[in-house]
Every structure is written in C-alpha cells, then in structure tokens.
Amino acid sequence: MTEDIQARAERLRQDIRRFCRDLPADLRSKSQRHQVLDKDDYLQWMRLLQAQGWAVGHWPREHGGLAWSPLERFVFEDELARHGCPWVIPFGVKYVGPVIYAFGSAAQQQRFLPKIVNNEEFWAQGYSEPEAGSDLAALRTTAVRDGDHYIVNGQKVWTTYAHWADWLFCLVRTGREARPQDSISFLLIDMKSPGVTVKEIRTMDGYHHVNEVWLEDVRVPVANLVGEEGGGWTYAKYLLKNERTAGASIGMAWHALHRLRELAQEQGPDGGRPIDSPLLSNRIGSLELRYLALEKAAYRAVGAMMDGTENGGEASLIKLRGTELYQDIAESLVDLLGAAGIAYDPAALHSAGLPPLGPDDAGGIIKDHFYNRAATVFGGSSEIQRNIIAKAVLGL
Amino acid sequence: MTEDIQARAERLRQDIRRFCRDLPADLRSKSQRHQVLDKDDYLQWMRLLQAQGWAVGHWPREHGGLAWSPLERFVFEDELARHGCPWVIPFGVKYVGPVIYAFGSAAQQQRFLPKIVNNEEFWAQGYSEPEAGSDLAALRTTAVRDGDHYIVNGQKVWTTYAHWADWLFCLVRTGREARPQDSISFLLIDMKSPGVTVKEIRTMDGYHHVNEVWLEDVRVPVANLVGEEGGGWTYAKYLLKNERTAGASIGMAWHALHRLRELAQEQGPDGGRPIDSPLLSNRIGSLELRYLALEKAAYRAVGAMMDGTENGGEASLIKLRGTELYQDIAESLVDLLGAAGIAYDPAALHSAGLPPLGPDDAGGIIKDHFYNRAATVFGGSSEIQRNIIAKAVLGL
Amino acid sequence: MSTDHDTISMLRDAVQRYTNDHYGFLDRAGVLGRAPGFSPRAWRDYADFGWLALRLPEDDGGIDADAAAIGVLMEAAGRRLLLEPLLASAVLGTGLLLRTGSAAQRQAWLPQLADGSVKLAFAHQDDANAPCVWRDGLLDGVKTGVLHGDVADRVIVAARNPAGDAVLCMVAAGDLAASSYRLVDGRGAANLRFDGARAEMLGQPGQPAQDAIALALDEAAVALCAEAYGVIASLVAISGAYLKMRKQFGKPIGTNQALQHRMVDMYLLQEESRALVNAAQQVLALPRAERERVVSGARAYVGAAVRRVANEAVQMHGGLGITEELDVSHYFRRAMTIDSLFGGRDLHMARFTAHSLTADQPGEQPCVPM
Amino acid sequence: MSTDHDTISMLRDAVQRYTNDHYGFLDRAGVLGRAPGFSPRAWRDYADFGWLALRLPEDDGGIDADAAAIGVLMEAAGRRLLLEPLLASAVLGTGLLLRTGSAAQRQAWLPQLADGSVKLAFAHQDDANAPCVWRDGLLDGVKTGVLHGDVADRVIVAARNPAGDAVLCMVAAGDLAASSYRLVDGRGAANLRFDGARAEMLGQPGQPAQDAIALALDEAAVALCAEAYGVIASLVAISGAYLKMRKQFGKPIGTNQALQHRMVDMYLLQEESRALVNAAQQVLALPRAERERVVSGARAYVGAAVRRVANEAVQMHGGLGITEELDVSHYFRRAMTIDSLFGGRDLHMARFTAHSLTADQPGEQPCVPM
C-alpha cells in the first residue's frame, strides 16, 4: 500500500469528521438517539452524502464516482459509523449500481445509473426466498419468457425497505440447467408493476424494516435483464465481492463501545460510577480489546485486498468478528441500563419522545440490540461465513 | 428415591470421611501433593479399600459385593475424590469384573472374580486401537480359531498401566459379519503369554501411564472367551453402562476448587491475598457456580438412574461438564501459581522432592493439568459425548 | 412444609392442560399490547382453578403451597409466556401479605386475592432522587420499574419511616399516580409517585420488614428461575423441532454437527437449570446465608443460561428468529426481563461469590444434598 | 528507524530455511532435556548468520534491527520451538546493554554477544523475602524464575541501590549461585542468589533505569507475542493437516462441521494475533502510555489466544495430543510459558483496561492506523 493512498484516506477521514460535525440538527439528534428514521430522513441523508460525492465514491469516475481505493471505502464506512451516522443504504449505490455499470447494457446504464447517483430512485434487493436463505441456488422464483417480456412468479423475503422502493433487483430462475446456479438470471423489476405485492414483516423491535415481496404474473421487459440469461449467479457473486469491506461494522462497534464507556462513567445517584466496579471495567476492557484485534485485522485484510494477496477469507473474518462483537457490546449496553434496559416504548422512538426510563437513547439502544440480532444472519449467516473460511482458507 | 437409600448413602459418606482421616501418612502425603504413585502405592490403596469392602461395593452380594445403589456408588467415588484420594483403578473392579459375573462362565467366575476382589491380579483394558479410537467398531485385532485356542494378532493403544498388568481384557474380531459390531468378541489374555509386548507411551507430564500393547500370534485358550463369539459388542456396552456414574469427576473438581480457593487466600509476601482481586474472586466464583450446577444436575441424573427415568444422556452430561470444569479449574490453578506454574521437575514428583518454585504441590498441580487434558478424550471424547446427546436425547 | 408429590403432579397436569388449550401463541397475540396487557379471562380462570390461592393456608381455601408448587405455575408462565400478574400478585404480593399482614389485613385481602378481584404489585426500587418515606400513615416518594404496577389494585411498597427503619406498607391504586409503560416482553410496568398517599403499614418496621423484603426478593429470584427454566425448555424444544424441519442445501439443518453440538450445549444448560431451580426451591426456609448462596447462585446461572439459550435459538431460526410473528423472539424478550427483574444477574453473582462453596474441609460439608 | 522490507524478507527466508533444515522436531528432541538444554551448534550457526547481532548498530556488525525484524526470529522460535536463549540474550540482554551500557561496556561485550561466546539473561523477578540491593559494586539478594539463568554467562539484574533507586547491573555467572531447573517447555531457568556478588552498574540509577526496565519488559512482551503467533500458526497448520488425514467412522474427521467451525475460530485468532503483533511492534518507540496500551492489549489477547489454540489443538489430536512423542504437546507447554513469562496475562489485561480506547471523541482519534 503506497503512502499516497494512505494520505488520501487520511484526508478523507478528516473531511468526514468535519462533515459529521456539521450534520443538520434533526438528523444528528435522531441518529445519536438511535431513533427510527423514516424514508424522508434517509433521503435527506443520502442526498447529503451525494452532495459530497461520497455515496458513490467507490464508483469509477466515468460513472460519476471518485474511484476510491478499498482503503478509502473502508475509512468512509468506518468513520461515518463511528459518529453514529445513519445507515448508508446500500441497495442502489453499493449493490445494484456496480452490477449495472459492470454488466448492464449501455441503455441500462443510461437509464438507471444517474438516478442512483442522484438518489432519485430507491432500490431493494430480491435475493432471499422462504426456501432459499443461505443456499441461494435453491431459489424458486421463475421468469418465463413471453415475447418481449418475462412473466415472473415467486416470493422474496427479508426485503429491506421494499415498502419504500421504486425498483427491485432480483434473482430469478430462467431455465432448468443441471447446476441450479446456471439457470439464474438478474432482473430489474419496477415495483409499480401489476402483480407486485409488499407485505410487512414486523421485527421484534416493533418496527417495519423488512418485507415479503410477492410476485404474481409480473411482466418484466426483457430489456430489464442484466447481462446474459443464466449469468445471474456470476453477477450476484460480483455484487457480494463488491459488498466486502464492511467497515461499517467496525465503526458501529466503536460507536457503541464509546457510548458504553460514557454511560459507565456517569455518576449514579449514590455518587458511584459503574466503571468503578472492577468486573464491569474488565468487561468493557475485554470488549475494547476485541475491538482492537478486529480493527488491526481488518486493516490487514483491506491491505491484502489492495495488494492482491487475499485468501478469500477476509470478508468473512470481518463480518464474523464485527457482528459478534457488536452484538456483545449491545448486550452489555442493555445490561448496563439496568431497569431502563427492559423498559421499552416503540412509539416514542418514532415520535422522538423520551424512553420511559433511563437516558434519552435508552430506547434506541434496546431497539439496536433487537434488530442487530439479524446481523449474524443477514448477508450470509455466521455459520455460512465459518463454512466459507473452512473451505476456502483451511481446505476442510 | 427412598429415604432409606438416602440414609444409607449418608452413612457411607460419613464412613469414608473417617477412612480418609486415617489414611497411612505416606499415601496421604503423596496424594495430597499429587505425587506420582507407583504400582505398590496403588496396590496398598486398593487393599485399603478392599479391607472396607468398598472396592467392589457395587457388586452383588453373591460375588462379594455390598449391592450398593447407584447413589452409594456415586457418593463413594465423589467423596474419595473430594479428599484428593488416589484413583480407584477401575479395570478389574469396575470394568471386567461385572462383565465376568454377568456374562462369564462359572469356571471364569471362579477363576477370576476372587482375585479381583482381593487385588491379587492387576487388569488392563484392550479396547482402543490406532485406527479405532472413538469408533470401536473399526477395530482390527483378529482372533482366529485354532483348535482349543485363538491366535490373536493386532495392536492396542492407550492401555493404561499395561506395564503393571497381569491380565488384559480385550475386544477382538472373530469373524466378518456385515455389521462390523457383530463379529467382535471379548477375550481375557494373560499378559505373560508369548507374543505380548508392552511399549511405553510417555505423556506430556513426563510420565508413563499408558502403553501400546502389541499382540503377535498370541495363543489364548478358547476357555478365555467371555460369553458368545460375536457378543463382545454387547458386553462392551454393558461395561460402558456400568462405568456411568462418574462421581469421581465431581469430587475431583471439588478438591481442586478447594485448593484453588485455599491458595488464593494465602497471604503473599507483599501482604495482599490474590482472592482480594475482584477479577480472581469472580473467576473462582464462576467455577464454583459451574460446580454447583454440575453437582445438582449429577444428583438428578443419579436419581433418574435409580427411578428408571433415564433418557440416555445422563452419563454424557456428567462426563462433559465434569471433565471440562476440572480442566478449567486446573488451568486456573496453574495460572494462580504464576512463575511456579511453569517451573516443572518431573523427577521431584517421583522422589517426593519439592518443586523448584511455589508450594509443595505445585508440581503435582502442573502434572494434573497436563494429564487431565486427556479426560476430554479418553472414555469417549467430548465430541462423541455431544454426538450421543444430540442423537439419543435430542433426536438430531 | 413441603407440598406433597401428588398435589404437585396434579397441579402440573392441570396447568399444562389449561395453558395448552387456552394460551397458545395466537391466543396470547390477541392479548398482547392491548389494554390491560393481560387476559382478564385467563386471570378469572386461574382464580377458579385455585391457582391464585396456592400460597394461602388450607383454612383460607389454599394449599399452603411451597416454592416447588409455585414453581409449577412459574415454569408454565415461562413455557407459555403468560402475561398475567402471577409473579407480582399471586407470588410476591400474596406472600408478603401472608407473612407480614395482621389478622385483620389477611381477613380483608386474602379472599379477594384468591378470587382474583384484587391484584397486588410489589414496589421495591426507589428512585434515588425521591426515596419513599412513610410517616403517620402517609407515603411520599417515587418507585420505578414496578412490574404490573400498571394494573395492580393495591401496591405493597418498601419504604422507610422517619427514623430510617425499613417498613412495608400498602397503597390503593386510586391513591397514587402511575406512569405506565410496557416492558420489552409486553408485560406492563409503571413508575409510581406517592404524594402523601394513604398507606397502611404491613407488619413491623425495622429488621422484621427488612427480613420480609429480603425473603420476598429471594422468592422472586426463585420464581424467576422457574420461569427461566420454562423459557429454556420451550426454546430447546422449539429449536430442536426447527432444526429437524428446516431444510437447507437439501437436508435438514439439524444434520449440521456444529448446530447439533450447540443444541447439546443448550440442552446441558436446560438440565442444569432444572436442577438448580429445584435446589433453590428447597433452601427458601433455611437461614439467610445458606438461602442466599444457593438462591443467588441459581439466579446467576439460570439468568445467564436463559439469555444464552435465547441468543442461540434466535440465531438458529435465521431471519425468522427476529420476527414479531414467531414465538422465538418473544421468548428472547422474556429472557431479558427475567434476567433483569428484581435485581440483575451481576448482583446475584456477587452475592454468590461472596459465599465460598469450598472454604470448609470436606468433612464439614453437608452430606448427600438431595 | 524501521528495518526495510527487503532485509526483513531475506531474514525471514534465511530463518525459515535454516530451521526447516536443521531444527526439525527430531533434531530438537535430541537436544531437549540434556545439558545444556539447547543446541550449542545451532547457537553458533545463529551467530554465524548474524542473527545474534541483529540489534547491533551497523558499525558493530549488526543491522540496527527494529521489533519487526526481531519478530521474524521470535516467530521462528515459536514455529519451531527453538530452545536457545534468543529472547533472554539476543533480544533482552543485548537490548539492555545497547541502551544503558557505557561505551566501554558496549565495546567489551557487543562483539562477544554477536559471536555467541557470551549469553546474557535478564533477572527482574525479586524473591520478596530477599530483594536485590546493589551497594558499592556488590549485589545481595535473590531472583527467581530467570529464563536461561542456568546457562547465561552474565546476568543483568534489576535491583535497588541503598537510596531505593532502581539500578541495572551485571554479574558474571561465576559470581552467583544458581539453582537450575526446567520450565514446562523444556527450556532452562534458574533461581539466582547473590551474596556480595561483584556487579558492575549499567547506565544511570533512578528513573533512567526504571524506564529502561519498563521498555525491556515491553520488548519482551512484544517478542513473546511474535513467538506466540509462531506457535499459533504452527498449531493451526498441524491441526488442519491432521483433520484432513485422520479418519474415523470412515471419513476424515475434518468433515465434521463442529470441528471445522472450531478450526475457523482458531484461524481467526491466528489472523488477529498476527495483526496485533504487527501493531505492537510499531508502537515500541512511542511514549510510554501509548506504547503500553497497544503492547499490553496485544500481549493479553495473544496470550489468551495461544492458550486457547493449544487447548483446542490437543483436543483435536485425541490421545495423541497429550503424548510426549507428538509435537502438539510441546507447543501446548510452550504456550504456557509464553503466557506466563515476564508478567502474566492478568497484569497486561489490567494495564490495557486502564487505558480507554474510546474515551475520546471520534474526531480526536488517530486517523488511518496502518
């Protein structure tokens, strides 16, 4: 890794810090308290990033990006998350955009990329199905050719923010090849098409993040097929590779650890501070040490990606350690809240009201604790990540 | 469980306590310091137990036992181990004896049982082979009929105290049935037979506990076949069932925990006591809590055995938790010894000399830490125990 | 006095039958989150079956139930995630009234507790800025996090008199200001404010009240252990069934050895928890030091176990595990409240650690601990 | 000044080639447990290759090696379980002499350190009953657990002068009484008694000596981390190969998913350890507080990791794992000494915990930490 690349990444980090200091007050307050953000909040947020050019900073310049190195991309995600910023919704800028500029037709690139760059269209991801979670190759949604259209039938599940989406990128089965992977294709589906139904799945934090998407005789123009019929598996793998750096999980862990220590240092009504308990102090220290190990390993992994010395396990390592650490920090935060850690008012999180007990962000902390149990499942479960390392790296 | 049985078990425990107070000084001192015992020490120990009738207390009265309930048997093993007593060598009294009185011929019972009861013959167990560890059914040692004899060829491994043994009970293959289990037979082999070679395996504590036993054209009288040809698998399973209660692992854990707390309460040269460190205190407390959970669960398991409400997982539960807890206590003890926990003099353990650093039992503590790493392997590894519960209890 | 085996067995059958038939996950979903946050019909049924009177002496229509009998009810509360104020009213409130109430107070309230027409709650957690002080029959101060304080008809409050002695007193719901909310598991709770509220004293101030409070909190801990065991047993059963049913890569996910071994670890925690629950139930009548060691040990171990089992169960169910629609997420949330209510796990671990199990010589240890 | 990449790369190749060819497990077995407890031939070879002079300035025939270069040697010590006094003499002793010795002392000893004719040890652990006191060139007291104190030609001793200031001094082996023994990993150690032993002072008493000692102990911690990483990397490789080779129930045991996932956890620890070793090597020149946080963090994490990996490796090898004949048990014992020498894990964990990682606002954190 050259010093030049490092210097650029450092400059980016400084820029992000300034940017975070200057966030609009309402967005800042909501995200600091882990309130629930609605679609307008997210659109505002994505437009702020876009104004800096950052939302697609990792894209090539010819498509409007800044041609970031993996290191800059990592720093970008890490630093935003450290400040407790909202999620950088990835479906357009991180997932489907790169697939379109890498494999889409010129017409598709012209039609879709500018609206992703400018946040004019909201995307969702149609991958998982009820019977095809970790084994995507088992997916059953079919797309049958009928003249200039495909007729799509099937059901997707865990579709984040499908209820806000204008478009769905979707893996479908277009044939019956011997290897199930070989008959998967990558389709772009207009969510306003007749036959598309979005059904809410409420999660245990009491909110509506994810959905079922039912596709019943949905007519999709053949022009919305990305690349070749049967090429979907290749594009999906490209997408996953592109998803890799996952700096956000590290930044999120830092943010939560910071809050944990802050809360532990607050004086209680009896004058004592929780941190003065050697056991709690050791618990926090142990989490901080896991953080340190993760951070150092993650930068090594990014370095390997840039040097081309990857062994294929880097992304899994970061995801495993990052998500498991974050969950443990979240559990510690809830425990530290004591009675306030089991008092929950979802409505207050929507209306920016106060939680029934504890500090202003108590409700947000509990919400994150709930929803982030999914972090070790979504995007390839911890079990799958371990299988990947066992096979790809250890040859077992 | 009736109150009568409980009362008998309580009386037995009191008797054992008196017995332990009155142990001969040399044996007491050696075992308190976890010195290495040689064959004469063990013979002396087994004879002391025999004088009480306890070594075969679990045998039926007609063969010289006391017809103990599972509870008494458990209490016997637990209480001896609590006092740090030597190992009750199980190969004769616990393993082969019951097989002989349950399945052996009258002649075999007359020939072998009295010498087991009176500790006149030392037994070893020929089960494991280099290619048949946890999967005994894969064993390769063959016994081919030749007139009134079997000709035995093969190799056994991990044979504890084979170098002291007069007799070996041995699983051998006597045919080629479709199910490999169906051609296994149970043979009694005189260790003085030509063709029997014992080869030492030194373990990482620096001692000689276990051996390889090579069997080359060993002639074994057919009269030494226990039960039927091909019945060995049944007898082996009976033996394992008979081996079940495993109270010793719980008593050993108690003994080590007691020593751990004692050491932690000793004043150091700077006047401080290790136990005053909240982290160490919590570490010990956590081990004590695991002990409490194990003890309560073990008594429930013994109760289930006596009520006939076993689910088949009880023995595995006790072995898993007991051995893993003991290993963690042993590691804590070594850690607590600090610099003395890595200073090791195996010769001193033989000669009853002092360890190079630390308290008198420092060397013994380190030795036990080493050798007890085998506790989660020998007698069915922890992995096998978890497989058993997964299958027998959880139906997975 | 211990409840006999047959009584417990019959109670267990009855509780299981009723909750299986009338407290399925969908029945419960219909109750959850709507006022009053529990099922008044189930509450009446519990009263009709005599479950709210379990602790009462036989003369008052009860069976003088011991902790094991109460545990049957609490285990069912964990297995089926019952929302009714069993712990707050039938266990804690009733127990405090029985142990500290005057004859007149017992006569006044026991029948109404037995028939379910009065529900109690126990307020023990002071707001540090407004500790509760009882003076001449009037109570001032604030209590936080009162389980079922939102629906209790009367609240038993741990307070101090002007001399600083501990007192127990009882306040009618109409005489206090309640700020109600839901716990993460959907049950109701409230912060309570007393502004010169009429409060009748229960029992004697000073050490007697302190002892009664300590015992009540230990009873709560033991009851929570039984409830936790119910949650664990349900999650082990549900997860085991899911591993057999759910297929991935062409075979049930339960054929994956890594998941099998983790299921085994959950099962081991279940078995240990059950044994510890039984042990803790048997020490409630012992002197405080002996009682606390086993109760706090059980509470610390079982509290950690139920959290761990809940984490694993959610993980094994994949995306489904975090949905509101599936029971697993509700058990997860119940595990959080169990591990936190009436004094969290750290407190009990510290109390257990302070009592050494192994300080004595072997010869001084109790004999067969069954 | 940091050693350049090519130099480190060449050193790594040379060390790997030599230890592969001349320090196999059987070669080592021939040395182990016999006097002098290490291989004098290997020691001469190290000297010939210049490895004992790595830390020396270029003018003295060295390469002024930084911690990363030293780490190459220490990692090999872990990978091949080298028995020679590399850490005691070539790293610690040489470092202390370089940093605190007078020109005359350096001139006297550096050539003999470089050619291997003098081996040093560092005695820092007082016997509390007989602390070491230096007075007018003579030393009294006892030091315990001195790594390679059995074979050192000279021992550098941390002592106090009569004013109570820290001092560093050097004693010849002939002027002290050594009681030698083996550590669990087979390396030699000794308790040392000084009875008015002639002892020449190194450097300045007081804060300078204290700083030199603290830095030396941090250097030892970092060197041990590199050694631990070598042990971990070897055990991961050995265990992975065994899982592929060993068959049970008709298939390699490495096809069992539970073992696969445990191997993955070992691998994760390996990767994190490597990253922490690198990080710790880069902070040795920083001010003490910053240095200690990362060094102690790395030492605590890697110490726990090497113990855990060793436990798992032994378990995965079944009965073989605890035999003297198999290398795995030797790695297990080395893991114990690594985790204990020069201040155990608890000490470092406490030191790390005392330095918060997250107390600052994000904007005050260092930037890209590479």
UniProtKB/TrEMBL annotation, chains A, B:
One of its GO terms (cellular component) is plasma membrane. Keywords: FAD, Flavoprotein, Oxidoreductase. It comes from the Bacteria. This is Acyl-CoA dehydrogenase. Residues 230-394 form the Acyl-CoA dehydrogenase/oxidase C-terminal domain. It holds the Pfam family Acyl-CoA_dh_M. Residues 124-216 form the Acyl-CoA oxidase/dehydrogenase middle domain. InterPro entries: Acyl-CoA_Oxase/DH_mid-dom (IPR006091), Acyl-CoA_Oxase/DH_mid-dom_sf (IPR046373), AcylCo_DH-like_C (IPR036250), AcylCo_DH/oxidase_C (IPR009075), AcylCoA_DH/ox_N (IPR013786), AcylCoA_DH/ox_N_sf (IPR037069), AcylCoA_DH/oxidase_NM_dom_sf (IPR009100), Mycobact_Acyl-CoA_DH (IPR052161). The keyword Cell inner membrane does not apply. PANTHER family: ACYL-COA DEHYDROGENASE (PTHR43292), ACYL-COA DEHYDROGENASE FADE29 (PTHR43292:SF3). GO terms for molecular function: flavin adenine dinucleotide binding; oxidoreductase activity, acting on the CH-CH group of donors. Belongs to the acyl-CoA dehydrogenase family. SUPFAM superfamilies: Acyl-CoA dehydrogenase C-terminal domain-like, Acyl-CoA dehydrogenase NM domain-like. Its cofactor is FAD. Residues 9-120 form the Acyl-CoA dehydrogenase/oxidase N-terminal domain.
From TrEMBL, chains C, D:
Pfam families: Acyl-CoA_dh_1, Acyl-CoA_dh_N. One of its GO terms (molecular function) is acyl-CoA dehydrogenase activity. Signal peptide: none annotated. Gene3D superfamilies: Acyl-CoA dehydrogenase/oxidase, N-terminal domain, Butyryl-CoA Dehydrogenase, subunit A, domain 2, Butyryl-CoA Dehydrogenase, subunit A, domain 3. Its cofactor is FAD. The keyword Kinase does not apply. It comes from the Bacteria. Belongs to the acyl-CoA dehydrogenase family. This is Acyl-CoA dehydrogenase. It comes from Pseudoduganella rivuli.
